[in-house]
């Protein structure tokens, strides 16, 4: 795995190819937009999305947790895509074998009651400010704060010689903000156009790559 | 009454109209009364409706001698038409006959336009003849007790069968007929088709190969010969005529005298945007034609279209700029002249359009061909020959369309429910599913019941349930309703309606075009310049604009390919350019282009296969010229790109047209290595082609339709349509997850098979490659783009194929920053 480490606001962050972000000073792993339950939601409505996508999400979570072994795991919203369905059972079983403390910054898709999360010892909050770093689901600009968020599922479109182009998911980093790519397997992406002040880090299966600008 | 006596009733009626029945009409009556099925080959406007409707009525009279006083209730015949716009004309013709001979039979229409009240009335009491579309027929199969509705039907007529045959709507018809054959024992099946290359096969597909229905059937040909005159419009100054382009406006002034000289002229364009632009430009340059010229295409509102059709018939119009929307349907007697703008890509379509003119007996049809760029003149020359030699292409029927089967079985589960063992022999009789195995059938059954091939723990998949007695049934009202909304096989972009702010409906437009506009932008639609005010609730609100410059919506819509027959003619014409014998006017006009081509490269002869390479600031271009038509080039281009990409990691952007294809890369291709490795070999052809598809995006695009037809993607409730962007991305997303997690899924596999196997008539690629193998390969290293290469390298619709690692590609590429 080739990761990239950057610093902002005197804090150090490592960008992982899975889309997860590790914050060194707090020993915390940040993961956005897993959208658990989405596959089951589709299947329940008669659309036969391959059910094996479900287990893949959990395997990917296990891998990245094993890589960083963080004290805290913070989901940046849209952890669960829909109402309670059978994937919730799988999630609660998975949580039992996680040793990190788990926090959820609630997103627009997170409609499951905080009481359910409490039962499995997950703390739910709308936002979380730690020093000068502000964690939210929807990206937000606030004075004197570095905002880390999800929600957008950022991607960018790249161009090359020979009329080539590509669109890839990415970490989207502005001076006061870091938007994480979607972690879940059955999620799309939204194409953003950076300005001169933004840095873009594309993710591929095994590598995080800072994108060249024209 | 015997056959002779009943036929006399029809003869008398024809006599009273002052008509004389054609031999093909009498032949249809006789064979129908004998209980036969069949295919009637007759062109539009030949009296085909009376050939079959009269027979149906005579059969009723024969069976019910007291037909005048005692009416036998219930549906007797179904007439299927591909276009709902045609249903009214058919109804009028049918009613004219029954009223004329005083038989109390009723005629009804049921299409997507039929309102709820009318449908409910039909449910209580069906008309004797029902005119409907393939989609509405399937909706009837989705209602409870459909078997009772259809049990006494004696005839199904599938009109314009050639239009349906090569599409998935044809598969829908095959499946519906397979069911109706069982529930309506007295059923006769008849198709009506224009001339196509594979008429015999068309009959086989309609009736089912090797079925009793097929063995008990006839093929009747109307044999109405019509003289057709083809004239090419050749630019006066070839030197300034463009090398590329698709609009053809350079020749606008040549068209005006033709319009002025004839009573009514139809100008056929290939796309709706081209139609809009031509209409606009003619009026701009010749305002004196205002009021005498109109436009007709599928996105314009129905009232306007109907008005235009009436105005043509009443001789109120000098010219109509139109698209394929006027290909089918009723006659327009006053039409004297046809102008085809740009290559029609197929002989059958060209002939059909030519046939829209000169309907009076003895008159010849006149069609002008207007090229949009220089090389298209070769096509014009080839068309001349095709018409002369009566070469017509095939319509290729689909095979193993699992998406349509999934939809059909779900339809049966919505209404009465079904037992799989009853249905299997029925679908096995259809042409489409003649080779389906029990395993494949079981796969489809599993798919609709458990959404997988084995039961999964914690799964809540819900669609078709299996009752205790083994009946497959949908019990959830929600599932049933969603399914009914989605019956059909035509998948289109989300459509928005265009309205004036003050009210007044203008037509409909694809969402993706509107998504590129900002409020205040001006665009041309329905012949007017409109300013976008806002988009709200699937409505585009606009006001009139006086601005001169405007964007024109370029409606999507597939690009057509030359048929193999046309490609062959095209090659022959091309080769003639090297000789001085038998050269047509069109080829002569191209001499300066051939001259330029020869300066930089060559014009190949039949023994040569030309490859050109050159470098521009875009990168390294390699152009190959098989002259086999776009579809073959798509396949061959991907295949070759794939094989080259195995030699070393490389990324290609691939462009195609009917003459050849281009592989463009940021690296130079080692052409000598390509030739030394015999990369044109037919060995491992199908497996390499399959792998090349994996590396390109073509199958991904096919999958979009399959996902919608099979119900994997739900397109939304009426008036609350999901944005097509959402549909698009979710079918794309689905494609990715199937690719990674369920590559054996039959629907996923179907996307690959359909990409080439359907659009390439069987073996066409193989034949092309065998031909190339016999040719000498001539590789020309050029200084700059040649005239032949120009239309290809400037094409912006491209495929891509790469064997480089994603990470390596990203490192070579850049991102464009937002201008701030």
Structure description:
The complex is a heterodimer of chains A (214) and B (820). Chain A is globular. In chain A, strands 8, 9, 10, 11, 12, 13, 14, 15 and 16 form a nine-stranded mixed beta sheet that branches. Chain A contains four helices and 17 strands. Chain A is α/β, with parallel strands linked by helices. Helix content of chain A is 19%, strand content 34%. Chain A starts with a strand and ends with a strand. Chain A has a single domain (4-210), classed as Purple Acid Phosphatase, chain A, domain 2 (4-Layer Sandwich). Chain B is of the alpha/beta class and 820 residues long. In chain B, strand 14 and strand 15 form a beta hairpin. Chain B is built from 33 helices and 29 strands. Chain B has a seven-stranded parallel beta sheet, sandwiched between helices. The interface between A and B is large, with 49 and 52 residues.
Number of strands of chain B: 29
Quaternary assembly: heterodimer
Question: What is the beta-strand fraction of chain A?
Answer: 25-35%
Q: Strand order across the biggest sheet of chain B?
A: 3-4-2-5-6-1-7
Helix percent band of chain A: 10-25%
Secondary-structure content class of chain B? alpha/beta
Separation of termini of chain B? Answer: 87 Å
| Regions with little confidence, pLDDT below 50 for 5+ residues of chain B | 555-559, 723-728
Low-confidence stretches of chain A: none
> How many strand units of chain A?
17
Helical stretch tally of chain A: 4
Mean pLDDT of chain A: 93
Mean pLDDT of chain B: 87
CATH overall fold name of chain A = Purple Acid Phosphatase, chain A, domain 2
Our Rg estimate of chain A from Cα atoms comes to 17 Å
């Amino acid at each position: 795995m080739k990761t990239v480490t950057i610093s902002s606001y005197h804090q150090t962050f490592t960008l992982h190819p899975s889309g997860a972000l590790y914050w060194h000073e707090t020993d915390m792993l940040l993961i956005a937009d897993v959208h658990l339950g989405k596959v089951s939601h589709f299947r329940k409505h008669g659309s036969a999305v391959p059910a094996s996508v479900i287990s893949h999400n959990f395997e990917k979570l296990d891998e990245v947790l094993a890589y960083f072994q963080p004290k805290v795991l913070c989901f940046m919203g849209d952890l669960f895509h829909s109402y309670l369905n059978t994937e919730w059972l799988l999630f609660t079983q998975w949580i039992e074998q996680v040793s990190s403390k788990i926090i959820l910054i609630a997103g627009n898709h997170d409609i499951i009651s905080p009481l359910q999360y409490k039962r499995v010892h997950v703390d739910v909050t709308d936002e979380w400010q730690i020093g000068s770093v502000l964690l939210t689901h929807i990206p937000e600009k606030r004075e004197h704060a570095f905002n880390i968020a999800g929600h957008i599922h950022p991607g960018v479109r790249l161009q090359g010689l020979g009329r080539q182009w590509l669109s890839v998911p990415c970490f989207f980093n502005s001076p006061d903000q870091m938007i994480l790519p979607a972690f879940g397997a059955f999620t799309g992406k939204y194409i953003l156009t950076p300005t001169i002040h933004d840095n873009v880090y594309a993710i591929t299966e095994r590598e995080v790559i800072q994108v060249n600008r024209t | 009454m015997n056959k002779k006596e009943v036929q006399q009733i029809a003869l008398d009626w024809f006599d009273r109209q002052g008509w004389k029945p054609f031999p093909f009409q009498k032949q249809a009556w006789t064979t129908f009364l004998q209980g036969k099925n069949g295919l009637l080959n007759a062109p539009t406007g030949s009296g085909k409706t009376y050939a079959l409707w009269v027979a149906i009525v005579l059969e009723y009279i024969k069976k019910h001698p007291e037909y005048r006083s005692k009416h036998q209730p219930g549906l007797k015949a179904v007439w299927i038409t591909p276009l709902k716009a045609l249903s009214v004309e058919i109804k009028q013709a049918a009613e004219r006959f029954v009223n004329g001979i005083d038989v109390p039979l009723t005629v009804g229409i049921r299409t997507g336009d039929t309102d709820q009240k009318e449908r409910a009335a039909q449910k209580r009491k069906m008309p004797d003849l029902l005119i409907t579309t393939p989609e509405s027929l399937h909706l009837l199969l989705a209602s409870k007790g459909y078997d009772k509705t259809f049990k006494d039907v004696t005839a199904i007529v599938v009109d314009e069968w050639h239009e349906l045959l090569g599409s998935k709507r044809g598969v829908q018809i095959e499946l519906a007929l397979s069911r109706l054959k069982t529930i309506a024992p007295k059923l006769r099946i008849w198709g009506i088709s224009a001339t196509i290359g594979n008429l015999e096969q068309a009959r086989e597909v309609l009736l089912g190969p090797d079925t009793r229905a097929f063995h008990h059937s006839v093929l009747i040909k109307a044999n109405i010969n019509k003289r057709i005159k083809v004239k090419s419009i050749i630019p006066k100054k070839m030197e300034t005529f463009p090398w590329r382009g698709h609009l053809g406006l350079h020749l606008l002034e040549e068209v005006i005298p033709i319009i002025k000289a004839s009573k009514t002229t139809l100008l056929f364009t290939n796309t709706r945007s081209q139609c809009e632009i031509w209409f606009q430009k003619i009026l701009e340059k010749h305002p004196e034609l205002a009021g005498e010229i109109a436009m007709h295409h599928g996105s314009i509102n129905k009232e306007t279209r109907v008005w235009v059709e009436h105005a043509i018939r009443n001789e109120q119009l000098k010219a109509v700029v139109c698209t394929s929307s006027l290909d089918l349907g009723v006659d327009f007697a006053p039409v004297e002249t046809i102008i085809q703008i740009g290559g029609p890509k197929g002989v059958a379509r060209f002939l059909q359009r030519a046939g829209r003119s000169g309907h009076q007996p003895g008159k010849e049809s006149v069609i002008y061909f207007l090229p949009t760029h220089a090389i298209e003149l070769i096509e014009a020359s080839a068309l001349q020959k095709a018409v002369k030699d009566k070469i017509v292409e095939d319509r290729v029927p689909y095979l193993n369309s699992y998406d349509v089967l999934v939809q059909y079985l779900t339809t049966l589960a919505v209404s009465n429910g079904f037992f799989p063992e009853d249905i299997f022999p029925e679908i096995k009789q259809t042409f489409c599913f003649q080779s389906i195995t029990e395993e494949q059938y079981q796969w489809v059954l599993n798919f609709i019941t458990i959404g997988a091939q084995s039961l999964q723990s914690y799964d809540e998949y819900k669609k078709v349930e299996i009752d205790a007695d083994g009946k497959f049934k949908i019990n959830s009202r929600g599932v049933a309703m969603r399914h009914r909304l989605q019956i059909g096989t035509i998948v289109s972009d989300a459509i928005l309606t265009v309205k004036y702010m003050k009210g007044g409906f203008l037509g409909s437009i694809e969402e993706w075009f509107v998504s590129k506009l900002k409020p205040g932008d001006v665009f041309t639609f329905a012949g007017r310049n409109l300013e976008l005010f806002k988009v709200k609730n699937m409505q585009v609100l606009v006001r009139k604009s006086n601005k001169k410059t405007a964007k024109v919506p370029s409606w999507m819509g597939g690009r057509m390919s030359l048929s193999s027959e046309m490609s062959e003619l095209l090659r022959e014409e091309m080769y003639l350019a090297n000789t001085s014998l038998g050269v047509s006017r069109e080829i002569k006009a191209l001499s300066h282009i051939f001259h330029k081509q020869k300066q930089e490269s060559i014009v190949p002869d039949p023994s040569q296969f030309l490859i050109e390479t050159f470098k521009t600031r875009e990168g390294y271009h390699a152009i190959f010229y098989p002259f086999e038509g776009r579809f073959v080039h798509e396949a061959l281009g991907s295949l070759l790109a794939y094989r080259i990409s195995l030699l070393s990691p490389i990324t290609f952007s691939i462009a195609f047209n009917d003459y050849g294809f281009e592989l463009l890369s940021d690296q130079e291709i080692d052409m000598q290595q390509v030739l030394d490795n015999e990369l044109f070999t037919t060995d491992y052809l199908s497996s390499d082609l399959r792998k090349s598809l994996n590396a390109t995006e073509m199958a991904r695009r096919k999958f979009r339709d399959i996902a919608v037809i099979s119900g994997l993607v739900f397109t939304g409730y009426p008036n609350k349509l999901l944005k097509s962007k959402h549909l698009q991305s979710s079918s794309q997303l689905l494609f990715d997850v199937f690719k990674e997690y369920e590559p054996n899924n039959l629907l996923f596999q179907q996307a690959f098979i359909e990409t080439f196997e359907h659009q390439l008539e069987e073996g066409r690629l193989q034949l092309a490659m065998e031909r190339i193998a016999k040719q000498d390969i001539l590789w020309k290293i050029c200084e700059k783009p040649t005239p032949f290469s120009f239309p290809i390298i400037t094409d912006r619709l491209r495929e891509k194929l790469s064997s480089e690692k994603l990470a390596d590609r990203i490192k070579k590429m850049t991102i464009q920053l937002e201008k701030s």
